[in-house]
Amino acid sequence: MIFSASPLNPIALDLGPLEIHWYGIIIAAGMLLGFYLADREADRRGLPEGMFMDLMFYIIIFSIIGARLYYVIFQWEYYSRNPIDIIMINEGGMAIHGGLIGGALAGFIFCRVKGYSFFRIADIAAPSLILGQAIGRWGNFMNQEAHGGEVTRGFLESLRLPEFIINQMYIDGAYYHPTFLYESLWNLLGFAILLLLRPKLKVGQTILLYLIYYSAGRFFIEGMRTDSLMIGEVLRTAQVISILLIVLAAAVWIWREMKYDLPKYGSVQGVYGRGRAGAGAAPGKRKPAGQTVKKKQSHQKNKNRKKGR
């Protein structure tokens, strides 16, 4: 039996010389929804009014630059011959890991300049971040990219997928794994898990759990894709980065657990780091306490009293 598969138009608006792609619209929608949710959580946690809106400006710029540069670097053979295409981000070619690096750098610099706790801010943002990624993957769907290996139409129908998804996975005469959908669903599950566990986790552990969870899913899904950025002929860049992030996040988790007496996320208010307003202070109040307290601090004070210091 022959099926007619008509793909969706990746262009949302054609304004003559200017084409607005669904890819850019969907990415922007994911970012805006994520920042809206993070800003609401920031208000509940007693953060300075409008702080996340200020932070959003820098994170959006740095994450877009990072996502594009990451992709361009690993596709340099093409872009070195077509340099004008480097700025054509509306047509796709963004790497999530590059966006994470750029956004994290912007957030870290912002927190250092303002005197805020980076881990406190990151914990608030983590669920919004993975939700934005879940939405953003649908931009790949519209571009018919980031898909897996070839499959049959019968396989896609066995997954009980809507007809429009099956049709969109028909590319150049063959059907392909909708890996964009696998990752989007994985991220939606992660969003729910982070929201559920965040009040019970200690400061800094929500963002670390996000890195571990997302990287684990990305590692396996990346192995199904046919358009992976590569290091040499064997290593998939995203899989290497995912392993490194899992190891790094786990190491930081253990190190912070051993070194500090960390408060629970849900038990603290405010956003200032060590030496500023208390991460453990009540809303509207300040006290000279940092985000974390070294476990041996009180023990050392007792020793000092005994020695008459």
TrEMBL record:
NCBIfam families: lgt. Belongs to the Lgt family. The chain crosses the membrane at residues 20-38, 50-74, 94-111, 179-197, 203-221, 233-255. One of its GO terms (biological process) is lipoprotein biosynthetic process. Its EC number is 2.5.1.145. It is a multi-pass membrane protein. Pathway: Protein modification; lipoprotein biosynthesis (diacylglyceryl transfer). It comes from Candidatus Salinicoccus stercoripullorum. Pfam families: LGT. This is Phosphatidylglycerol--prolipoprotein diacylglyceryl transferase. It comes from the Bacteria. PANTHER family: PHOSPHATIDYLGLYCEROL--PROLIPOPROTEIN DIACYLGLYCERYL TRANSFERASE, PROLIPOPROTEIN DIACYLGLYCERYL TRANSFERASE. It is found in: Cell membrane. InterPro entries: Lgt (IPR001640). GO terms for cellular component: plasma membrane. A 1,2-diacyl-sn-glycero-3-phospho-(1'-sn-glycerol) binds at residue 137. Signal peptide: none annotated. Keywords: Cell membrane, Membrane, Transferase, Transmembrane, Transmembrane helix. Residues 275-309 are annotated as: Disordered. One of its GO terms (molecular function) is phosphatidylglycerol-prolipoprotein diacylglyceryl transferase activity. Catalyzes the transfer of the diacylglyceryl group from phosphatidylglycerol to the sulfhydryl group of the N-terminal cysteine of a prolipoprotein, the first step in the formation of mature lipoproteins. It is an enzyme of class 2 (transferase). HAMAP family: Lgt. Residues 284-309 have a biased composition (Basic residues).
